[in-house]
Known about the structure:
alpha/beta; TIM Barrel; 3 domains
Amino acid sequence: MTLFKQMALALSLMIITILGSVMAINYETAKKDMLESLYQTTVNNISALTNKIAQTGGEPAVITSIIDSEFDSGYYKRIKFVSNDASFTYTQEDNEPVADVPAWFVNFADIRLKAVSADVTSGWNIIGKLTVEADTDIVYETLYQTFSKLLYLFVIFVAISLFVLSVMLHFILKPLQRIQHQAEAILKNEFLIETKEPYTTEFQEVSRAMNTMVKKVEEIFNKANIAAQRNKELLYNDPVTKLFNRRYLMLKLPELIQLETKNEGGSIMLIALSSAELLNKQLGHKEADEFFSSLAKIFEKECEDIEEKIISRVNGTEFTLMLPDCESYLSESISRNIFEAFLDLAQENGVDTEEIYINIGIYRYRPDVTLSELLTRADDALTKAKADERQNIYVYEEKNAKKALPKEEWRAILEESIEKNYFSLKFWPTLDSKTKEINHKVMTFTIDGGENKRFYYGDFIAPAINLGLVGKMYLVALKELLTMQHPQLSGGTCSIRLSNEFLKDSKAFDELSTLFYLYAKKLNFKLFFEVSDTFATHNTATVKGFVDLFKQYNYGFGINAFTGESSDFHYLKELNPAFIKADVSFLLDQTEESMNSLEVITKSLGIEIIASFVKDEQELAALQALHIDKIQGPITDNLQL
């Protein structure tokens, strides 16, 4: 029960008790006064009545007449006369119920008035005894009216008092609501500062303490963020061009090779300047650095439409442009534009292009290429470009070794799989290396439509992207996850990696909202959705919309393929993921300072670090030395009990 309800209940009971007591006292006082007044009246009336009867000399007929006449006046409930020798007795009594007064009130009031008795004397002789009991009907009627008025006033005063109490409590406890809101924000790892100071002394102290705590945590985060940016620049950026260096390129290449693209792979471009020494000699060291910076801007401009690219300076004279989802014709066009822009830049700076020139080697790779093959063939393309004195550009493209299915055949397979739900859900574990227990399971799906219709995710994702069917595939798979029973998930956690192409789909958000609305129910497992770090970095507003949708249905959110590409980690604070998954090679490549900064950032935001693609015990031991215990990858097969 909230503090407001507790205080409202306590004060309400107190107000009702006080007003009820006042009402009861007033009622009892009125009742007592009425009874005393009626008793006194009865005493006065019996004195007058005895005098009248005394004057009759004891004649029964006259006594009867006098009693009847007096009784008819309406002031009596009962009049009884008994002669002294008991030879004559006469009684008049009204046994009718009280008019205009409810029976329950008669029982409640229960008015009992003592009868008054007096001797009737004629001269010195006692002729009889008279007993008179006053009529209490008037008391009941008056008391009922009084009770009704008191009850009416009681209800009005209670209602007014409770209303005033509610307003006062809301006013008094309003600062507490802001403090509660701030506390909830802290639990969500949001740095909310309460600027309006409460007027209540105790609340002021609490608010100041919480503001101080939030400022300290935010300061820790900001310092760690700045340190992480600085460490990242030192570790992964070329100091002259600000491009990524070879170290970062080698970390990102495995991820980019496997990136889901509609063109099944992409292009890698190696650009080599003939001589840095001659450039320094012709321009001077400072001007040569400016020349390299300008050249880097040319690369960035010509590749600005390629998403998730990596442009790096691998040494003093060589640059690598990793361009996922880039076909041969586009990479050739980009290379020609770069070559022409280089000639213009050289002319502007007075560089002799007979001595200083660039060669460009392009390798069009497929998703099944290994990292070693990628680098070897790209280097071979550059070597051939250097050997061609006329073109300076060489494109090396391998034909796909596998016989590719025609586009329309893929369309038929995918549309049939969507219509008949041939998708089979698969779950891969993430383990806690300390406890050897499953932390959560990652869901993916395959096509299992019978003979000649069995495909892994990597086989059909590129055709699905090309045909615009990614969204429909994911919705069918998610519907099965939400509506069917999955014993292997019971009591655990399931995580789903959402494709970038699905998130880019303009209809995805509305379709996912509808799916949740129709089929979301109380699951017997926790559900999380994962988004790639690169997509989250470049599309934070879009991802935030999905995160808010997930929260509506109590679904969690995480980031995968984390490589710290962003120069500012405030997007993590905005998105507030429960975890980030980073390749083991990235985590183990960090310097001590970089890892400390990342650890401070994640801990200040309540984010868990999970290492992915962990292969062997050696990598696991290195991760545990960094206090990273959650892992996924081939090694989990050996660790599961």
